[in-house]
Each structure stands twice: as C-alpha cells, then as structure tokens.
Amino acid sequence: MATIRKRGTKWQVQVRRKGQSSASRSFNSKGDARAWGRQMETLADKGNLDEVHQKTGKLTVKDLLVRYRDEVSAQKRGHDREVHVINALLREDFSRQQINEVSPSVFAAYRDRRLKEVQGTSIRRYLGIIQHAFDVAAQEWGWPIRENPIRSIRKPSTGNSRNRRLLPGEEGRVIDECRGCQNSWIVPCVRLALETAMRRSEILRMVWGDVDWEKRTLHIPETKNGHPRTIPLTEEAMNLLKRLPHSMNGRVIPISATCLRMAWDRALRRAGIKDLRFHDLRHEAITRFVERGLSVQEVALISGHRDYRMLARYTHLRPEDVGRKLTQHLPYVQKADKD
User: What is the pLDDT of residue 192?
Assistant: First the structure.
C-alpha cells in the first residue's frame, strides 16, 4: 500500500514492493498524492514498476516535450504559438538530458541567459510549459519522475509590463515596407489590428460570415479567453473589408501565422524599426480607443478583457497627450474661477 505523509507544505507518497524499485513523489494536495499512489500500486501489482523505472531513466527532456507538444499542446486553442515555443526549447542543450537527471540549476541558468534577450513574462511562459509537461508526465502518463525541477527555481517578475507604442512616423514606415511584400495580405492585417485591436490569431481566423454589414459589427467566435465577442467596426475597418477580395475558403485573410510573422519581421528590418511586435499593434489600438474618449467598459467590449484591471496595462497614455487635453480645457477652468 502507498505510504503518504506530510512534509512541510507538501504531501509525499511512496510505493514499495519487495523485489522492485520504490517510487516516490511529492504533491501539493493529498488527493493528488493518493491518485498517483494508486497508479503506481497498479503498476507494482503487475510487476511493471521496474520496467517503468528503467524506461523512464532513458527518457530525455526532448522526449517529454515532444509528447507534450503532440498530445497536450495540440488540444489547446491557439496551439501554434505554444508549439513554436516548444520547438525552440527542443534546440536547447537541456533537451538532451535525462528527465530524472536534469537539475533545477540547469533551468535557472537558462532563465538567467534568456532574461538578457526577452521579457520576464515570456520566460515565465516558457518555464510554465516545461513545468506542466513534467506534471502531466508524472500524474497522467505514469512516469515515476522524482521531482519537477522547475518548481525549485525562482520565476522572473512580471512587474514591468510591456508598454511599447508606435513612435511618430513608425506606422507609415512599416506599412510602406509591408506594401513592398510579395504577399498582399500583410497590409490589411496591420490595418485591421490597428482598427479593431484584434489579436493576430483572431485576424487570421476571420471568415466573411462573421461580418454583419448592416450592423457594422464583426463576430469573433474563438478568443484567447474562450468567450466569444462581437465588436463594432470603425469606418476605416469597414472600407478596408469592402476592398478585400473574397477567397474560396471563406477566410477574410487566407494566410498562415508563419507567413505573417516572417513578412512582419522582414518589413521591420527594412524600415529600420526595432523592438516592435505585431501584438504591440493591439496595445496601440486599445490606447487609441481610450484617447478618443471611449470608456473602460466600451474599450473592454472591443478588446474582450473581462477584468478591467488587466485592461489598465494596455492603456498607456502619453503624458504629452494628457497635457494637451489639460491645455484644451484650461480656458473653461479659468472661466469658472472668474465666475
């Protein structure tokens, strides 16, 4: 029978059988510990515990991430992005190490190196994928992994959220370079992002049947948070859609995410623009809606944010813009003082 005991804030379970290797693991909840213990007991009763140990000892982080990518990531909405991240992780040196031999210090070194190149939020996402892969392997696949190395290391802070906005002249430069692309769909993608605040995945999943020409709205059935939304379309967005040709498959923008990403990167290089991501266009659009006087509730209707506090990190007002508003209202304030 599995032995379960409390060790600090963790629940440790150990399964032993005479003549077989023991299996042990720690969990955050007693229920998870019991479930894993029963799984290992079943293997032990069949005499398969040593076989699983032997097989697991030969498995690498690459084996873990490949199976996770193909079985778990593939079932997620917007899986293309996670698959891209995992494929990059597979090129790291740690992917060749065995899953029960790779140490937390290896991932801590990876964290520190990558923090010099990308934001802390991105590193947290990468480490989160690896951590979840270890958890799934231990809890669902029956791999007797001794520990999850990611749980032992510090995760980067997300306090400094990204607030990149378009600088004066950048919008025209990037669109001019996009016009030079062989793919004529890139410019509409950029303009739709700025007019609707849609995510890249939402733009690429648009179909003509989602456009209501009479109500001047667009229905977005598949979103990042799983809640469909219908957004109003600006005059510019309506005119842009009317000018687009209709593809045979019904998609408004019939290109892949990879095609868009490569064309976007090339356009930025030719324009000499650094540190601008396609997702920053969503930030820009949301902030422009605020600057045009829309309320937080109205902006949330368009952006799809259900938590207004999350919306606040997208609304990066420039001090000079606020100053101009104050100046515009100053005569009214002075008049009120005189009265």
Answer: 96
Q: What percent of the chain has pLDDT over 90?
A: 46
Q: What is the pLDDT of residues 270-282, one digit of tens each?
A: 999 988 999 999 9
282 a catalytic residue: yes
State in words which class domain 170-321 has.
mainly alpha
User: Ranked by mean pLDDT, which of 39-48, 85-94, 115-124, 289-298 comes out on top?
Assistant: 85-94
The domain locations on the chain are 3-57, 61-152, 170-321
pLDDT digits 0-9 by tens, 164-176: 888 899 999 999 9
Q: For residues 73 and 61, what is the distance between their CA atoms, to the nearest angstrom?
A: 16
CA dihedral 159, 162, 167, 171 (to 10 degrees): -160
Q: Which of 6, 96, 216, 224 is catalytic?
A: 224
Q: Among the options 25, 229, 282, 283, which is catalytic?
A: 282
110 is catalytic: no
Distance CA 265, CA 253 (A): 18
CA distance 320 to 323: 5
132 flagged as catalytic: no
Backbone angles phi, psi at 217, to 5 degrees: -130, 165
Which of 199, 200, 229, 283 is an active site residue? 199
The Cα 259–Cα 261 span in angstroms is 6
Tell me how crowded residue 265 is: count the other CB atoms within 10 A of its CB. 12
Catalytic residue, chosen from 279, 292, 306, 324, is 279
Q: Is 79 a catalytic residue?
A: no
CA distance 72 to 17: 32
> What is the average per-residue pLDDT within 103-129?
91
Nearest by Cα to 22 from 55, 53, 56, 54 = 53
